[in-house]
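Question (not urgent): is this output format expected?
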Amino acid sequence: MREMDLASAIAKRRSVRRYADRPVPRELVQQVTAAARHAVPLCPDVGVRWYTVWDGNVLFRCLEAQAVVYGIFSSPPHYLIAVSEERPGYMENLGFCMEQMILAATDLGLGTCWIGGMFREASVHEFVPDLAADERIVALTPLGYADTSQKADLARRLQRWRTGGLGSRKPLSEIFSQDIWAVPWTSRDETLNRILERTRLAPSWANTQPWHFVIDDRQVIATVDHTPQAGNVREGKPYYRLDGGIAMCHFYLAAQAAGWSGGWRVPEAAEAKMLRDRYAIPEDYDVLGVYLL
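Got this back:
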């Protein structure tokens, strides 16, 4: 597989809601699905499976009423569906793995859009006929070339107007802390700041960015806000944890690109409590992972 230009992929990734009426060459779709299959997992013991819907219009018709609420989609040529075992850590693990696929697709010039809570699993079951009792359909994405027509541009402008600028991101000082939760991030370490900036650009539901990272001299603690918000838990699936996994993926990939070794470790309950006490992490935030520096 070709090596991904991470910085470019993160900068270019957008939620594409309107697609050109032309299929993606099969070999490119296969490169995207290969990126999904070979994604580095956050929780290696959680099984994840991927399905390709080659005729996107068929699934689009099943989702159309929900998709309009989500953001005025046009029918994409293809869809990719992510299925996971429902085990501890499965939502953040799926976010971690699928974002690697999303960025690989972006690097190949393809458009995607995270679809999590805005679909009913029953609407997608026919496309996953062998779904096991312990598995959930967690997320899907359209896959195709972005529609660059004037009509599509007008639709994008209308969507931005309707959502009131939800595409903005919080500054580093609001989502990263230095040494302890209450101290905003102010370091001038250029390499680390570049990693954090690429983490800051991670997508999330309505761009709420529910994650928060605490960084000291030795480790990074990833947490996520579990406070109930519109859309962050649907059909029993905590999508705020999926968002946390996406942000952790951005940190991991950016750290790897900077030449750092290592990766995320998911703490046991006792260690998570110790970290909460040590770093004064609020009770409404879940501790998701530890990354050793």
